[in-house]
Each structure stands twice: as structure tokens, then as C-alpha cells.
């Protein structure tokens, strides 16, 4: 019996959280219309599911191509991005917007996001808007209220690029979006670059939007194939 306990104890393996973290970032060039961005990002995912923000996902490419073609919608706006990841969308927006706040909840992702903002600030193409990073976990009312206290005028646009891939996070995402939209009394919209990966997720997103009193409208002409999947730009407003 004593020997069995010893053998069992020997089988216990403790792994530091750094075991799951891949921080082999590569400086990568992205071109959207006439806009060229250089960012640090991973070329493949970490083993930790929570670190998806270290990559540039297909929906972010869809979003940025759409924004670069419709830059007038960004002129002079204040923008907050949810699930900003490495910052490819927010940094593009900073070339046109009045104010850009990039948010994510994972500390490791926030580190690379800040590095990319520093990289962009030191580049030859200075942004026309200050880029600010805030920690924001979806559904966390305390953090949402803290953000709104720091930015009492609210935001003209809420952006999300390829951020719907985990079913349990969708209600929390839309809780957050609803609070941001209602803070401006409906004078705000949520622009989502959505990539369809499962019919169940498609249905869940529509159902949750309706339950949160939101209307979803597909932007005509934006449906396209991204990364072998179907993507589309959706504008979400309060009913």
C-alpha cells in the first residue's frame, strides 16, 4: 500500500503556466488598401485556448479590408475594440479616428498589444489618435464601468473582429456590447466581422442579440470567403 502511494505521488506533474505560452512573435507586415502595418504576432497558436489573441485571425483581415475601403466612417470617431488581440484593427483605426481604446482580458495578450502600440508609435507613420489599452473581461460590470468612467463621452463605434468562437462567451460579449451601446443612448453601433464556423454559433448569436434588444444587419457586399470559411460584416444596433 505504501509503495502504491509513493508511485502515485511520483506520477504527479506540476507545470508552470509558462509551459502553455508561446511568445515566439514575428514582425509581420499587413497591407490594407494603402495602409501598411507592421505588428508582432504568432504564426501559430499557443496550446492555451485563452491565448487566441496572439494571432491575427481571418475575421480581422475581413474587418480591416472593410474599414480601409470605408475609412470615412472612422473619421473623427471614438472607437473601442473588444478582444483586440495583437491590435491589428485598432491600430489601423488610429490612422483615421479621434480616439481608439483597445481592450482584451488576458494579461499575456495585453503585453503583446502594448508592444505593438509602442512599435506603431515609433514608426514613420504616426497615428492621428492616441492608442490606449484597457483590460476588459466581457460581462464584468466593474471593468465596464471603469472604462466608461475614464471615457465619459462613450464611444461612437464598438468593434469586434472574429471574436465569436466560444459559445459560452457570446452572452457575455453581448452583455458588454449592450452596456456600451446604451451608455450612448443608442447613438452608437457595434460593427462585427463575423466568421461562420458552426451553424449552432450562427443561431446562438442571432438569438442572444434578440434577447439583448439588438438588431443585426448584414452589410451588403461584405460576404466573402476568409480562411476557407464564410465571413461577413454585421452592424448591430439597439432596437
Automatic annotation (TrEMBL):
The domain of life for this entry's organism is: Eukaryota
Stored InterPro entries: Methyltransf_16, METTL22, SAM-dependent_MTases_sf
Q: Does the keyword Transferase apply?
A: yes
List the molecular function annotations (GO) for this entry.
protein methyltransferase activity
Record GO biological process? methylation
Q: Which SUPFAM superfamilies match?
A: S-adenosyl-L-methionine-dependent methyltransferases
Q: Which Gene3D superfamilies match?
A: Vaccinia Virus protein VP39
Keywords for the protein's UniProt record, in alphabetical order = Methyltransferase, Transferase
Name a GO CC annotation attached to this entry.
nucleus
Q: Does the keyword DNA damage apply?
A: no
- Name the PANTHER family on file: METHYLTRANSFERASE FAMILY PROTEIN, METHYLTRANSFERASE-RELATED
Q: What is this protein called?
A: Protein N-lysine methyltransferase METTL21A isoform X1
Q: Which organism is it from?
A: Rhizophora mucronata (Asiatic mangrove)
